[in-house]
Structures are given as structure tokens and as C-alpha cells.
Design a protein that fits this description.
By secondary structure, the chain is an all-alpha fold. It is 69% helix and 0% strand.
Length: 616
């Protein structure tokens, strides 16, 4: 028993020591009490300083600079950066609101409020400030005027209204030259496709800011503008200042730009060691190898990417790209699964049109809506309707193959994310879509007689006059509708600047086509080719095939509704629908598809010409 006690005695001693350490004899040395006192001291100091402001303002209540300083003190004095929380936010809101109420036209007060207001409140404040500047009230300085114009420019930039943003940023620059080479202005120039002006602003010798963040942003902009030498120069400076800042993917793109493909690959390989973004880094490596390295190297990097799972390349799009470049490389079983998935998807595209074609067929045969006793001849049947409907899906699929990641959402919706297409990719994607869909449209003319296209004889002059008249009326109604949308439904003016574009593509796609292939190609594709095959498809194949089973009015509404729906712009649905009705009625009045084609060409040519003029 004694020996057992001796055995446990050391443990009891150490236990008692640790317990004693947890309970200090001197209660005055409690760390929690110290921390609490420290916090109380901070609050006390805050109150003391605040009292100094209040004492001064009691004697000088109209000292606006000190009133602003007090607001700034309340805003930041106890602000917690980690929690992004101000315990005195309510007091700050009331103090700053009172200041604005007292001095609603004061330039310093308005400029101060631009630093923390946002949304509709900031928009209203800036509108008032712009009005006061025009009235030249309260002595607006060059500095304050520049700030207001800069803030208005950024408001438009955030709303993607780049033309207005460019205008106001230039105004800001007239009051303060620093805005003319600010990173924000350069981004606006890039969005306006003013590349030379953007490069000149980036290279402005007056920009002497050398902090790492600023240099990093400038290097990214040089890379975006494909000025690889300057991008590399800044990346090198940034790397010397902080080795953890640079991005291997951007460094690789820079090295690609100056022809250092092996060095670029080294950066991309280094990136693949990360575990949190492995799919993207391995894909970047494969795409680089596909452009600049041998077939065996490409196959190796593709296999590494594909080993991450089926969702990496579910439809074998990247494997087919590799096959086009290197047809003799071996295939694996999982590659063939992707090809089978693509074939299955194409079969689905072929079957989907039956969802709307079978009801038309059923209604026509079951309810016998159409009177067939007049023995009217039809150039197109429901097979043509099915053909062009399938063609739309296949054309979209072909255009998507340019960026196969867009197909991944079909099998991996939760983790769907993708970088935006570059302007060049937007242009190529639009061209692929147009050419594929045009093929299906012109193929629908197989066995169609020429008279189906030509108008009635002897009415050429009247047809042209009526077509131009319809076009003018349509444009006026459209402009009125757009103005209503801008005023009452918060529709962005910049999005509608060139509508109705009446294309299957967005303004961004068309600008990409123009910047990549030039204005002449833009006019030929968008202004002429698209109107011709769209009229063949909608006012030809779809309208006439439906007329065989429905009465004319229902067929008219159906083709116009499909034409409007397929453009995927909810607000502009009535515009597209009306255009589909008008062109169909022109065709009915004068015969053939030529009247509708003429109206469509006039509209699209004016639209694309306006875009080219603004683009330049």
C-alpha cells in the first residue's frame, strides 16, 4: 500500500501544480479583466474624442469640414475590419443624414456621401449633384466636380452602360488628369474596344503608383490588351516585391504571347499541384498543349484531365478537338463513352421538335380546322418544320463546342462555372451558329418552287414602298416601347441601344464578330445572310407547314411566337413577335418571301451598320 502511494504521488503533485496555475493567487492579474478594461478604454477614448467634436461644434455649428470630420470619425473609429461591422452604424447613419438634410447642395457634403451611399440613394444623390454643378451653385471646385463625374461614370460602368461611362470619365479627366489614366477608365476603354487609347493610358508616365496591388491590376490589363512585353515587365516587378501575388495562369498566357511556350507550360504544370482547383488547372494545361506541343504531350495532359471523372469531358468535345489535330492517337474506353453521349444528345435534338409538331399534326387531323376543298398547294410540310427546328439545336450545339465547358451544366449543374468567352470567341461562336443554321434553312428549299420566293408580278414599286412604310412604323413603335421600358421598368438603355437587332445573338456576339472579321463580314453575315435564312425558316417552312393543319391566323401567331421566343429576351418579346407578324403579312399581301426578306435586310443592315460606326 505504501509503495502504491509512492507510485501515484508524483502524478498527484503535478496535477495539483497545474490546478494551482489555473487559479492565480493574485486576482489583479486576470487577463480577461485586462481585455475588458482595454475595450472599455477604447470606448472611453472614443467618447472623449466625440465630446471634443461636439464641444467645438456647439460653438461653431456651421463648420462643415468639422461636421464631415465628425461623421468620418464615427464611421471608422470603432469599425471592426474582421467582422466588417460598425457598432455605431445607427448613429453614423443619423448624423450623416442630418448633415445632408442641412446642406443638400454643399459640394463637400455631397462628395463625402458618395463614399458610402449605394444603389438608388447614391444614384439620386449624383443626379442632384450633377444638376447643382450645371447651376454653378455653392462654388463647385475642380476636385469636387471631377469626383462627381467619376462617380457617375462608375455608376454607368457597373450598369454596363459603357458609352455613358466613357463620356463622364472624360469629363472627370478634364477636371483631374489622374482620371485619364485610372484603372477604371482603362477598363471602360477596353469595354468600348478603344484598345489604342487604353494602351496609351496604361503607359502614361504620370502614373507613379508602385504598390503591388496597382501594378498587378495594370499587368492584367496589359495582358488583356495582348501587350505581352509590358505585362511581363510588370509581373516581374510584382514578383520581386511579393512572390505570393502573381498568378501562374496569367504568367503562362504572357509567356505564350512572347513565344516562350515551354516556360509557359512550366507555370501551368506548377498550377496543377493545387488541390482546390485541379480541374481548371489541368484543362488549362491541356488547351495549352493542344496549341503549342506534340500529340503525345497533348494526350498525356488530356488523360490527366479526363481521369478526374466523367464530368470533365462528358461529351468528348475536347477529345474530338484532339482527334482533329492528331487523328492517329489512341483512344480509351471513357473517350468512346463521351462520343456515345454526344450521339445520344444529337438524337435528343432530333426528337425534341416533336413536342410542338405532333400537337399541330393532331389538331389538324382531329379537329379538321383547315378547309382542304380549295386544293391550295403548299411548298413546305411538317417535315420541313421538324428539319429547321432540329437545325436550331444542332447549330447551337456546334457553336457551343467552341467552349465545351458550357455543356458541363447538363451533367454537373451544381458545380457549373465557366469563364466568359473572349470577343474573338464570341465572334467565332456566332459565325459557326449562323453557318450551321443557314445550312438547315437553305436545305429546307429542297424541291421548293421558285415562285414561293418571288412576289406577284407588276407590284414591285408598291411592294417596296409598302415595305419601307412598314419598316418606319415598326421602328417608331419599337422606340416608343423602349422608352416606356427605360422610364417605367428600369430597362438599361445601353442593352437596347441597337434594338430591335432581330438576331439569334446578343449585341456582344455581334461586336465580337465585327472586331474579329471586320465590318464588311459583319454586314454580309448579319445584314444579309441572317435575314434571308430566317425568313425562309419562319415565314416559309414554319408558317406554311402549319397552314396545312391550322388556319392562317393560328399559324401566323405560332411562327411569330416561336420567332420571339427563340431570341430569349423577355422584355423584347412583343418587338420580335410584332416583327414576325409584319413580315408574314407583307408576304401574304404581295406573295413570296421577298418582301419580308427586304424588310429584314433593311432592319439588320441599319442595326449592324450602327454597331460598326459606334465600334469604330
Amino acid at each position: 500500500m505504501k509503495s502504491l502511494l509512492l507510485f501515484f504521488l508524483p502524478f498527484l503533485f503535478f496535477s495539483s501544480v497545474s490546478l494551482a496555475e489555473l487559479q492565480p493567487e493574485n486576482k489583479d492579474l486576470d487577463h480577461e479583466a485586462f481585455i475588458k478594461e482595454l475595450k472599455n478604454s477604447k470606448v472611453q477614448l472614443y467618447n472623449d474624442f466625440l465630446k471634443k467634436y461636439d464641444d467645438y461644434l456647439q460653438k461653431h455649428p456651421k463648420d462643415i469640414p468639422v461636421l464631415i470630420e465628425k461623421c468620418k470619425f464615427v464611421e471608422f473609429a470603432l469599425y471592426d475590419d474582421n467582422e466588417e461591422y460598425n457598432p455605431n452604424q445607427t448613429y453614423f447613419d443619423s448624423t450623416s443624414a442630418s448633415l445632408l438634410k442641412l446642406y443638400p447642395k454643399n459640394p463637400d457634403v455631397l462628395v463625402f456621401h458618395t463614399t458610402f451611399l449605394w444603389g438608388e440613394k447614391k444614384k439620386e444623390l449624383l443626379e442632384n449633384a450633377e444638376k447643382y454643378i450645371k447651376e454653378k451653385s455653392d462654388g463647385w471646385s475642380a476636385h469636387n466636380t471631377g469626383v462627381i463625374n467619376y462617380e457617375i461614370a462608375m455608376l454607368h460602368y457597373n450598369d454596363e452602360e459603357y458609352k455613358e461611362a466613357y463620356y463622364y470619365m472624360n469629363k472627370a479627366g478634364s477636371y483631374n488628369k489622374e482620371y485619364t489614366y485610372s484603372l477604371e477608365f482603362i477598363r471602360i476603354l477596353i469595354e468600348q474596344d478603344k484598345k489604342e487609347e487604353a494602351l496609351k493610358a496604361l503607359q502614361n508616365p504620370e502614373d507613379t503608383i508602385t504598390d503591388v496591388y496597382h501594378l498587378r491590376q495594370k499587368s492584367e490589363l496589359f495582358l488583356k490588351l495582348k501587350d505581352y512585353k509590358n505585362a511581363l515587365r510588370l509581373y516581374t516587378i510584382v514578383h520581386e516585391k511579393d512572390t505570393s501575388i502573381n498568378n501562374n495562369e496569367e504568367l503562362a498566357r504572357t509567356m505564350e504571347g512572347i513565344g516562350e511556350y515551354n516556360v509557359a507550360r512550366g507555370y501551368l504544370v506548377a498550377d496543377t499541384s493545387t488541390s482546390w482547383n485541379k480541374k481548371t488547372t489541368l484543362l488549362n494545361l491541356f488547351l495549352h498543349d493542344l496549341k503549342h506541343h506534340s500529340g503525345d504531350t497533348c494526350l498525356s495532359s488530356y488523360d490527366a484531365y479526363r481521369e478526374l471523372g466523367y464530368t470533365s469531358d462528358p461529351f468528348a468535345a475536347y477529345r474530338l478537338k484532339l482527334f482533329v489535330s492528331y487523328p492517329l492517337l489512341s483512344w480509351k474506353f471513357h473517350d468512346l463513352l463521351g462520343v456515345l453521349a454526344t450521339i445520344l444528345l444529337l438524337i435528343i435534338f432530333v426528337l425534341i421538335p416533336y413536342v410542338w409538331i405532333l400537337p399541330v399534326y393532331f389538331i389538324g387531323h382531329r379537329w379538321k380546322i383547315v378547309d382542304r376543298s380549295n386544293h391550295e398547294t403548299y411548298q413546305w410540310g411538317l417535315k420541313s418544320f421538324w428539319w429547321v427546328s432540329s437545325g436550331y439545336f444542332i447549330a447551337s450545339f456546334a457553336a457551343t463546342y467552341l467552349k465545351p465547358e458550357y455543356l458541363n451544366w447538363l451533367v454537373n449543374v451544381k458545380n457549373y462555372s465557366i469563364a466568359e468567352l473572349t470577343p474573338e470567341e464570341e465572334g467565332i461562336s456566332l459565325l459557326i451558329f449562323v453557318l450551321f443554321f443557314a445550312f438547315f434553312g437553305f436545305a429546307a428549299l429542297y424541291r421548293v418552287k421558285l415562285k414561293a420566293l418571288l412576289p406577284k408580278r407588276g407590284q414591285t414599286g408598291k411592294m417596296i414602298g409598302t415595305t419601307i412604310g412598314f419598316f418606319i412604323v415598326l421602328r417608331i413603335v419599337t422606340l416608343i416601347y423602349i422608352q416606356i421600358g427605360i422610364r417605367y421598368f428600369d430597362v438599361k438603355a445601353d442593352d437596347l441601344a441597337f434594338v430591335p437587332n432581330l438576331l439569334f445573338s446578343s449585341r456582344k456576339d455581334i461586336l465580337g464578330l465585327i472586331s474579329t472579321y471586320g465590318g464588311v463580314v459583319g454586314v454580309l453575315i448579319v445584314g444579309i445572310l441572317v435575314p434571308v435564312y430566317e425568313e425562309i425558316i419562319f415565314r416559309g417552312a414554319i408558317l406554311e407547314s402549319c397552314k396545312r393543319y391550322l388556319n392562317y391566323n393560328w399559324a401566323l401567331i405560332l411562327q411569330a411566337a416561336l420567332f420571339a421566343t427563340i431570341h430569349q429576351q423577355f422584355f423584347l418579346f412583343p418587338v420580335f413577335f410584332g416583327f414576325g407578324i409584319v413580315t408574314a403579312l407583307l408576304n401574304k399581301k404581295f406573295g413570296g418571301l421577298i418582301p419580308g426578306i427586304i424588310l429584314h435586310i433593311i432592319n439588320n443592315t441599319i442595326v449592324v451598320s450602327s454597331m460598326i460606326a459606334n465600334h469604330n
